[in-house]
Amino acid sequence: MQCSKCSGKAVIQLQHGSLCKIHFLNYFEEKVFKTIKKYKLIDRNDRICVAASGGKDSLTVLYLTKKYLEQYDLKTNLFALLIDEGIANYRKTTIKDLKTFCKEHKIKLVIASAKEEFGYTLDRAYPIINKETKKKPCNICGVWRRYLINKYARKNKATKLVTGHNLDDEAQAIIMNTFKANTSLSAHLGPVSGIEDHDLFVQRVKPLYFCAEKETRLYCLLKGFQVDFTECPYAQEGLRAKVRDMLNDFENQYKGTKQSIINSFLEVLPLIKEHQIKINSSPLNICKICQEPANQEICNTCKLKEVLKNGKKKRV
Ligand code: SF4
Ligand SMILES: [Zn+2]
Ligand SMILES: [Zn+2]
What we know:
Layout: E1 10-14, E2 17-20, H1 21-38, E3 47-51, H2 56-71, E4 77-84, H3 91-104, E5 108-113, H4 114-118, H5 122-133, H6 137-155, E6 160-162, H7 167-179, H8 183-186, E7 203-205, H9 213-223, H10 239-253, H11 257-279, E8 285-286, E9 293-294, H12 300-315
Parallel strand pairs: 3-4, 3-6, 4-5, 6-7
Antiparallel strand pairs: 1-2, 8-9
Helix pairs in contact: 1-9, 2-9, 5-12, 7-10, 7-11
The protein binds iron/sulfur cluster (SF4) and zinc ion (ZN) (2 copies).
């Protein structure tokens, strides 16, 4: 396989041709920088928090956000934020990788721990909550992560929150929301998340929005980032894994399926957002217990805390 640009040895075959190592790295970086510019993901005076786990997507987005800031000489502060949910045989390795990476690239790292914040690791909380509510680990993890990321980004005075969501993640989310008829969640998708600004919410942005998972994986490998590709032990549970496999099957048979899902979604996203603002029956509140943002009187995290408290009482 030859590179379509220089006839060198190709490392990847894309929809519109094959690329060698150098041309792939340039193509990938240009695509990320174009996304940042086109969707105005980073402003001159932003203080940037990159939500990082130490996995391939977060190391890539952390590296490229730093490179973007340096390239445009933006006098911007940058730091990484890791949430330690407490997942045995998984999180410790990614924390180690992220610490090494941040040290090497001189990036400040903030770590927030679920155990310290809620008194439970995810491994311990999951069986208790699941018994009471049937919730899957990823549901609990998602609620905790969103809560802690926003809280600690804000605490550290971030004005933008960069996440490593890639094209595959977004295509999966669009299909999952469609399967569940959850239009209000879809309204929060897109390169810039959310539908309305709020003082307590740090704006989330996704520079890897148009990068396929296989491209991010290859970028990491070619750049020689130290990253463990082991999956979270809970990743196979829940709807997302099934949707992921289904989309991969489609992509293998019909190239460009995931990109088409994103393209058609982006066309209708402004209408979905507009509609959601009009019918928004549950405007943002402040949680009565913890004072963090909530859709109802009590936020989802405090509701989970209550379930844990009740579950513990029953076990004593
Ligand atoms: S796979 Fe699920 S449990 Fe594991 S880190 Fe992701 S959301 Fe959390
Ligand atoms: Zn080439
Ligand atoms: Zn709360």
